Amino acid sequence: MKAVVYTRYGPPDVLEIKDVAKPVPGNNEVLVRIHATTVCAADWRLRKADPFIVRLMNGLWSPRIQILGMELAGKVESVGKAVTRFREGDQVFGATGFKFGAHAEYACLPQDGLLEIKPANMTFEEAAAVPFGAVTALHFLRKAKIQAGQKVLVYGASGSVGVFAVQLAKHFGAHVTGVCSTANLDLVKSLGADEVIDYTREDFSTAGPVYDIVFDTVGKSGFARSLKSLKRGGFYVVIAPSGGLASVVGDILRGIWVSMTGAAKVIGGMARAAPGDLAFLKGLIESGKLRTVIDRRYSLDEIAEAHRHAEAGHKKGHVVILLAQTSQ
To answer: How far apart are CA 210 and CA 228, in angstroms?
Structure first.
């Protein structure tokens, strides 16, 4: 099968299309022929080893995981002997998680992993763009104990996590303010945000302690500004810390101190899908309460350009890679 492979860290040009062995599903696994996948932040960060901690996880000098890609949608090609949830021909969507491997024609996933029948009202490309951003947003909103009537600020509201954070916060009954650039104001409004702030023209923190939750999806809200905007005891969610190692460590230490004093609760780390999360999201999609946003579509041969666009940090929603042109 064809797959995107990289054997050294670096710019998008390190990505190569190669023929590799087609995976064989284990007893409890499903083999999916991938029709669509995405390039998300985890992909380009792993490719360029940014931040440096990536090298500690994936190999100091060269990457252990050599096929990137976390999200996918496609058709079940075959199933292992013990599989009962899926059968050949099922249209599915899901995520490989930090095993990656979705930038290829085929991937194996456990039947009890993050895998569900594709929403009936979504194409493969739309469904592929759901799992990473939606599960991340859901995980951290729940961790922040979101409640109806609260005020939530989503910084980076037009990105792959932000578009779902806005919609899910609205679903849970919050009053949502989205922060984005001028070009994305209308998009964020269309997702249900009650208010939008153009960060190029306005500082969201000038209103003082207003929000119960500040959800920073891109690591650029600023620690001091975010705490200034939170009500005492509110939650500051940071899922993509930015800056050098010293800056990141400093923010972690400040977060621990702030949480200990009770001024605010700072949370971050990696999102973990709970059982039933993808089924829950599928239900919202099929009831018309959740949608995805696709910025650009690329073929597998254009993977380097897709990485460049995703890494630039100005995409709206998702960058999708199409592997098969089929009826959907």
So the answer is: 9
Tell me, yes or no, if the pTM score tops 0.85.
yes
The HSE-up count of residue 249 (CA atoms within 13 Å, CB side) is: 5
| Containing structural domain, residue 187 | 132-267
Phi-psi label, residue 276: left if phi above 0, alpha if psi -120 to 50, beta otherwise: left
* Nearest by Cα to 184 from 156, 220, 203, 204: 156
Torsion sign over Cα 167, 173, 178, 183 = positive
Tell me how far apart the terminal alpha carbons of the chain are, to the nearest angstrom.
22
Shared domain for 175 and 84, answered yes or no, is no
Whether residues 175 and 211 share a domain: the answer is yes
Residue 188 has pLDDT above 80, yes or no: yes
Is residue 16 a part of any domain in this protein?
yes
> What value, to the nearest 5°, has the Cα angle with vertex 208 and ends 203 and 212?
105
Asked whether 281 and 135 are in contact (CB, 8 A), the reply is yes
Bridge-partner residues for 108, per DSSP? 31
pLDDT digit string, tens, across residues 79-101: 999 999 999 999 999 999 999 99
Q: For residues 88 and 211, give the distance between their C-alpha atoms in angstroms, rounded to a whole number.
A: 48
User: What length does the chain have?
Assistant: 328
Q: Domain tally for the chain?
A: 2
Beta-carbon contacts of 186 under 8 Å, excluding residues fewer than 6 positions away, are none
From CA 45, how far away is CA 311, in angstroms rounded? Answer: 8
The H or E element that residue 74 is part of is strand 71-79
Q: Give me the phi and psi of 297, to 5 degrees please.
A: -120, 140
